[in-house]
Write a structure and sequence with these properties.
- By secondary structure, the protein is of the alpha+beta class.
- It has two domains: 2-154, 2,3-Dihydroxybiphenyl 1,2-Dioxygenase, domain 1 (Roll), CATH 3.10.180; 160-259, 2,3-Dihydroxybiphenyl 1,2-Dioxygenase, domain 1 (Roll), CATH 3.10.180.10.
- It is 21% helix and 37% strand.
- The strands form two sheets. It has an eight-stranded mixed β-sheet with strand order 9-10-11-8-12-15-14-13.
- Helix 1 (13-24) runs antiparallel to helix 5.
- The longest helix has 12 residues, at 13-24.
- It is globular and about 50 Å long.
- 45% of the residues are buried.
Length: 260
């Protein structure tokens, strides 16, 4: 079970996309017309063999689920974590046994995917997807339908090498960790500071931590291996982002940058 893609929700696509591409030195690889059924447009951005996505309501689209989510979060924010597995039907069947509700199904010859309700997942949409063309999800550049037919030619690792981890916050991290562990069938271990960690099959990490102050349950942090950390931080500072030697904040998410 591999963490393959993180989606952000933004009020306006262009400025959020421009900032993300500039600071991390990335290129947009695809715009998926399929998100139009939700009143959205998007940008899918390769990060090595993983992906970042930004979705935003189309101009003129009203009362979209994404727009309501942005309103509840007070602005652009982390939105969804998408996992790649060998057979997503197993995760769907497991979710049904656990009482985790699905909000969207996709069943075609080339893909199986299920989006799970953010209430049941602790404030974040989770999806588990599989593809006959990708029998080994942990192959770094495995097939990924949502990135389009030519995404590999847009994978630029000159500044950012790859995405390696995710941190979630929740008032009850033990409960959230147990739910994600049961769905994904990945073990969790308690940390020394009342949190929980989960290792993914490709060597990545998912952390579960307690919310602080008035913080809502959310995607709090993302981890990246960098080819040129100093350049990314220079660009973040030039844009006036909140940053320090270890990373920066964009769309209410902390980006942790680590040298390869």
């Amino acid at each position: 079970m591999r963490l393959r893609q993180i989606a952000f929700a933004a009020r306006d696509l262009a400025p959020a996309e421009d900032a993300l591409l500039d600071v991390l030195g990335l290129k947009t690889g695809f715009r998926d017309p399929g998100v139009g059924e939700f009143g959205l447009h998007n940008a899918v951005i390769p990060v090595g063999g993983n992906f970042l996505e930004i979705v935003a309501p189309k101009p003129g689209a009203e009362n979209t689920a994404t727009g309501r989510y942005i309103d509840r979060r007070g602005g652009d924010t982390g939105y969804m974590a998408i996992f790649h597995t060998a057979d997503a039907r197993e995760a769907r069947a497991n979710a049904e046994k656990l009482g985790i509700r699905a909000v969207w199904h996709h069943d075609h010859d080339d893909a199986t995917a299920t989006h799970f309700h953010p209430v049941d997942m602790g404030g974040v949409i989770a999806s588990v997807d599989s593809f006959p063309a990708a029998p080994d999800p942990d192959a770094e550049y495995a097939f990924w339908k949502w990135a389009g037919p030519d995404w590999e030619s847009h994978s630029d690792t000159s500044v950012t090498r790859r995405m390696t981890g995710l941190e979630l916050s929740h008032p009850d991290p033990a409960k959230q960790a147990a739910g994600w562990s049961s769905l994904l069938r990945l073990p969790v271990r308690a940390t020394d500071f009342d949190g929980f960690d989960m290792a993914t099959s490709d060597g990545g990490e998912i952390r579960f931590r307690k919310t602080e102050g008035q913080e809502q349950p959310c995607i709090r942090e993302l981890d990246f291996e960098m080819t040129d950390r100093a350049e990314a931080l220079r660009r973040a500072k030039a844009r006036g982002m909140k940053c320090d030697d270890g990373g920066f904040t964009l769309m209410q998410v902390r980006f942790n940058l680590k040298d390869v």
